[in-house]
Each structure stands twice: as structure tokens, then as C-alpha cells.
From TrEMBL:
<protein>
    <submittedName>
        <fullName>Thioredoxin reductase (NADPH)</fullName>
    </submittedName>
</protein>
<dbReference type="InterPro" id="IPR050097">
    <property type="entry name" value="Ferredoxin-NADP_redctase_2"/>
</dbReference>
<dbReference type="GO" id="GO:0016491">
    <property type="term" value="F:oxidoreductase activity"/>
</dbReference>
<keyword id="KW-0560">Oxidoreductase</keyword>
<dbReference type="Pfam" id="PF13738">
    <property type="entry name" value="Pyr_redox_3"/>
</dbReference>
<dbReference type="InterPro" id="IPR023856">
    <property type="entry name" value="Bdr"/>
</dbReference>
<dbReference type="InterPro" id="IPR036188">
    <property type="entry name" value="FAD/NAD-bd_sf"/>
</dbReference>
<keyword id="KW-0285">Flavoprotein</keyword>
Amino acid sequence: MDTYDILIVGAGPIGIACGLAAQKAGLSYVIAEKGCLTNSLYNYPLYMTFFSTSERLEVGGIPFVSISAKPMRPEALEYYRRVTISNHLNVRLFEPVEDIKRTGDDYTITTDKTTYKARHVIIATGFYDIPNMLNIPGEHLAKVNHYYKDPHFYAAQKVVVIGANNSSVDAALETYRKGADVTMVIREEGIGKRVKYWVKPDIENRIKEGSIKAYFHSHVKAVRENEVDILTPEGMVTIQNDFVLALTGYQPNFNFLEKVGITLSRDAKKYPTYNPDTMETNMPDVYLAGVVCGGMDTHVWFIENSRDHADKIITHIAGKMRE
């Protein structure tokens, strides 16, 4: 079995950046991805517009040209796909990593298809795969979705949207404009402060005029086939309902990190242990890159401020291999 210098877990933008940096440094590598290329971006809403400009989403110094300053999901998919294919990155798609074990000075990485050996491992798995659950009666019903894709599906339906950040606001506005009867349930006093600045006035005005109903300081307590119970400051309210979009955020795969041996903080944030100068974890020769570094603080790291993780990691690995 050949031993790679690096195995990269995850073929999102940061995993791709790590592959480009490894290739440039002349290191052998393979990228294992459990889904399609940039799997998380693929599962974003169809018409999502990025908060960042295209140049801040670039990886490997390769220009990202978009029609508008802030690209949309299809443009990002096109960019990262072309970067991957044109640079002949060694990517294995639809091949989830199941285990990573230390064997002597190297690591043995087991996927659902084969086994690899590598001297170093980079985990760039993002955070979008595991939704934060509500843990309420009825959450298991088919009408409850933790991901939102296309507003047309909800036309002429009574939709409850849980949350007040970007994904929830986009879903509320888009489904409303496709003819849905939309009710937002928000645990805070208002729309989230991190909502895109060009969208925030739109949702606030729709709520103010009554086009979209909103319950603030409120929680969904139970879901049934045709109803939803909402606990509001004035008491329990039951409304008719066809679908629930529980867009309450997502989290990294902490079980996977712990299985590898990476130490997490004992508090609710579950920060993984790593050296911010090199991105190496408490496990020797295992590195973290991208959003996964933030634990439950998934709003701290983005493509634009974590793409330099790739250069930090590859510089450190290359330096060790020269010693």
C-alpha cells in the first residue's frame, strides 16, 4: 500500500485549498469526501447569495469571476468544480471516512471503500451535516425539515420557520413570495444581527406590515400532522400548519473528532484542541482546517478567513518533512 504524505478529509472549499497547497508543495495527497464535491455548498438553498465577495471566496490564488460582486450558490459550485478539475486534484468522492488510527509513525485511514496510509491527516469536514435538534414531540414527522432547498415546494402551504438568522430569513422571504402563509418562531427579541444587511430591512418590513407573522421570545413546543404548538410570552398558541422548517443551525461531527482522539473543551462550545499557528491538534500530525475549528461557534470561521489554514498546515508539514 502506498503511503501518502497527507490525507485530507472533506472536499469543501477548504479541503480543496489544502489539496492545492499540497500539490504546489510537491507533497503526495488524497482527498476523501463522503458526498459530492463541495457537498455542503451543494445542499445550500438553490438561490442563496453569499455574504462575501467572489475574491474572498477564492482558493489557491485562482480568480473567481462572478456576475455580481456577491456570487450565488450555482456560481460557487461552478468555480470550485472547475478549480478541482482543471488542477487535477486527487479527490475520491462519495467515500466517507470511517476511522483514523495511528499505526507506528503513520495513520491508517479506513473509508467505506478502501484503506489508505498517510503520514499526516487534515480534517476539513465543515459543520453542515448535523442539524441542531429541537428535541420536541413531533420533530420526527416528515413535515419537519432541518434543511431548506427550494421555495416552490411550499407554495400555498402554511409554513412555520424556526429561527431568525440568515437561513431562516431567506426561507421565510422566499416561501412567502411563492405564496406560502409564513409564521416565524424566534426565541430572541428580534431578527438576528448577523443577517445580511440587504435582507434585514426586507424581513423586518414584511413582519411589520403583517405579511409574515412572527412570534418573538417564543418556542415551538410540539408538532402534529396539521398543527404546531408555540409557547409565547402571552401563553400557548396553536396554529394550523403544513410544514415546519427548523433552521436552528448545525454542528460539526464531534463524535468523529473524539473517535480520532482530538480533545474537545468540556463546556458547551466543544472547542477542539489545536495550535492556531500550525493548526495541528493534540494528535500528532493531525490537523484541523476551516469551520470545524470553531466547535459550536459555527459563525466564527468562514471560507474567507479560514482559507489561509491550508498554507499554515502545508508549510508546517513541509518543514517537518525536511527535518
